[in-house]
């Protein structure tokens, strides 16, 4: 099978972690599975037929878009339900991809060379030689204590296969390549922590598997799992409480400190809750993706089957659209739950960044479900995970709020403290901005929320003045997005005796503050001003004869080099004569000037993803 061929000096605009799910089908029926009914085996034949082609298509699409997958891991469902011939193809494709990108991956500190799979070990023995041939890195899932493995990690018919599990663990202990074990724990698992400790020693000493290569994971609430279990007349397992998580952490430290397993305890066992794990990404929708064999792209294993974390399909959507949707949806999930006050003041916010958006969605929580455990890990390892001093913490909290929760940052910005005594009549009803607008027909046109409609893809957004908005919306744009501005024709007649002389007036600002002007105010930096004469505008093809239209995509994308990562841009729209009227009104009316000191025009804020 041919590996992708790269140009020697190829530059990549994005580096991503890619999980590939060749099938959602599974041969087990674990009672806490977050995938719910998706693990049916009905699609196995179809999945096997398309598995390799889908992955190859996706890798080629990412390559064409300048995106490098620095890690391509196989996940499920259960990967080993695929026929050996399909697994052979997938392993060969992934190894070829790594070799074809060897230099780029090494430069990133990610010298990957072999495939990695997550497996329940059920079919490990018959596939052992195939794994050895391709030097496959293996992460095996079990339950601890082992008695609950027999109870909850059963076959689809509900039968225990614990004896076979133990045989396969012995075989895994002899496996000559990279391997590890992970255990997903619920509250029920933690009811007998001494049994967990005994079974760790049993696997290590009796089965011969080096348990330094072990990871602890905690199950979380899942609507899909609850629906699935209730349909079978069962109750879903309970998520481990913070108190039980901490009880396990302390018990493992007490039991294994000073033993041959201390290195694993310190280095590997709680890796999932450290900053190196995906939960530490500022926006994991920018770097972590899960691809299914039907082409669907989700956030990760935790987001499979959830529309809120579905980013698109590699067969119908461009890579740029998928990446932009991922960033937007993850931001929306964080924003929906708000910015927890304890996170705002936490010295470890830079490390945790409030946790996983998929779990937040399921739990309706604004903070990480393992917050107390993470704090204990950070506190116990202060050199590896230093706490920010107060001033640095406050700076980062403000930065995080501004970039992840812009509405919150905007809404909670305190008004400046008055430096002078303002006249009492400023506060009279007749002198308020809404009253001034109501008394002036031209101001009504200038501030109208029906004058400008921005068409973004299939979505139409009526634009409002930033002075009159109750909340702030920030969008994400890519070069693939279509942007057209529809303007009411009558707007060009306002304050203008000859509409043919009037222009559509655009100003683009960037949120990189600069200081200028006689008043030395800090303002957003101006990027460009653009004018288009009224008679050059096109008829609106979607809003009727009352509107004309301008295609903004070209002018915005033309200046994409000016847009900075994680920095918002602010596009203001008006007409030339309404702009002049605004400044003349400021000169004539002090009450208007004070309340409209910032640009009053309709605006659209966006981040740009190249």
Automatic annotation (TrEMBL):
Its cofactor is [4Fe-4S] cluster. SUPFAM superfamilies: Radical SAM enzymes. Keywords: Iron, Iron-sulfur, Metal-binding, S-adenosyl-L-methionine. InterPro entries: 4Fe4S-binding_SPASM_dom, Aldolase_TIM, rSAM, rSAM_sf, Sulphatase_maturase_rSAM. GO terms for molecular function: iron-sulfur cluster binding; metal ion binding; oxidoreductase activity. It comes from the Bacteria. The keyword Iron applies. Coiled coil: none annotated. This is Transcriptional regulator. It comes from Archangium gephyra. The lineage of its organism: Bacteria, Pseudomonadati, Myxococcota, Myxococcia, Myxococcales.
